[in-house]
């Protein structure tokens, strides 16, 4: 793809001012005949020639580069896909900073290998019913994560907490962005799988998450539930869950959370209203056909059955009204959660439907809250609803009918603010600060930029396709910097591509996926860099300005990750002790370069051992960790942290425990013996 050496030299000469750089606007980055970049020194022209790079590539490299030791301006919190984790990346460098263990055990972080704080989180994340369903396989210890959500204050990211859904198992995880650790997993009742969310409301009143496939509510009808449209329509329901967030801790206050019953369409992506539409939540859907499969019996395959209707429905839910109705007790308790029944939701004006073209996917709300941008996978347009028009239509009861459950369907023509033909397979939209939307085109493998309406654009300038850039390939989500808040920053866009064929060296039939960095600085979008992702499949990410995060570099002395407060088991050096109480052996120990105290622990086979460990260091990055061979124990004991592990000493022998972090010159000496006598 790079131009030849000769062409490069000619281009350089023709420009007469060093390398000509830039796609559209041909920006000139260098000056002088020798190709010295202005004010930077070094011979960029020669280097580029040596590496066979053209001027455009040099420009891309520079614009996506964060020099060693410097920090990125933005932090991207990414779904880790089937890995069940979250990824943390710097933008624009796209360097991976961390994986946060959320739903799946991760030994380095000591998540799920014995540490008391993580065992509690993972245990809580598997409900009793699922435990018995999956007895043979044990705890539910994976997830298909799709949509991370960073907490917000007044519609802007506040950098305090992050939430992430488990598409496969209908769960939500909560991460504290002080220590970047998972504090809670709620296995949400009435949700077998989840998709619509996680999105937070503008002041993180709620984290919202709804069903993907509807849930069977008539457990007596398993056998016949797919036999006919009527059986299906009666046996299944969707649920929209409003997880109430405790504003001190960020934890989900399960007692204050509630659900709204939905029709058994496949509820898809969702977004929270903001500013003009604050108080509302929008959820797309498909399979309003109620297709049930049966391909072996001659029925059309689901993909055909689910794509018959010209229009599916966007659900519009007034959550402030729902909150009042729930508080007034017009709910039914189902599996421990108060649910507003569908009839009540209709009667109370909580739910309306809007027709949306053919198998829609994403619905995304513009920064001012007035535009709902809907990508219809099988329609080449982005359909933009005006929230002002929606309110008018509700007010005027401008309905084109009701669905089979009696939900009013707004008149499509009355609520469309604009439609833009953007290309094939539109999915998800993000925004910048200047009134543009950026929509991913899955089939076309491109990003399209289009203009919104008032207050940014009017007349002929509104709702126009203004630019397109190719991406490689089959883009799903995309993100702009703080692009789904009330104050997007533009600058960069990251495309999250599903296929990476021919972009990277082959590593077997399971290809990496590909993040691509796109510059939004110029008139036209410009691809800057590729980054293969080694764990699939990240669906969505959010990008926050790095300076909004307030991550701790060390735990205050003795703080436990469970409570984020000083642990009752925190000790200082010199206070280490071992106490026996019947068959319980309780140990209070410390870790400090380069000693684990105690370094000999004697127990009897069958004893119950409780170890409390405090890292008594105060230097950032002075991490210790603790592993016992054969006991499947690996815990991280980070600077200042007090944490623990509890186990039965059921294997006799001499076990050499040690610190697994290379923490000091004498790290290898940081070990000890656990003697388990028969
Ligand atoms: Cu489009 Cu689950 Cu967000 Cu994937 S969904 S792409
Ligand atoms: Cu502590 Cu190695």
Shape: globular
**Count of the separate structural domains:** 2
Oligomer: single chain
Q: Report the CATH superfamily of the largest domain.
A: YVTN repeat-like/Quinoprotein amine dehydrogenase
Query: What's the pLDDT, averaged over the residues?
Result: 92
Task: List its salient traits.
Methylamine Dehydrogenase, Chain H; mainly beta; 678 residues; 45 strands; binds sulfanyl-(tricuprio-$l^{4}-sulfanyl)copper; binds dinuclear copper ion; 7-stranded mixed β-sheet; 2 domains
Report on this structure.
The protein is mainly β. It folds into two domains: 74-104 and 142-548, Methylamine Dehydrogenase, Chain H; 559-677, Sandwich (Immunoglobulin-like), CATH 2.60.40.420. The protein is 12% helix and 39% strand. The chain contains eleven helices and 45 strands. Strands 8, 9, 10, 11, 12, 16 and 17 form a seven-stranded mixed beta sheet that branches. Strands 36, 37, 38, 40 and 43 form a five-stranded mixed beta sheet that branches. It is globular. The protein starts with a helix and ends with a strand. Dinuclear copper ion binds next to loops.
In short:
With 678 residues, this protein is mainly beta.
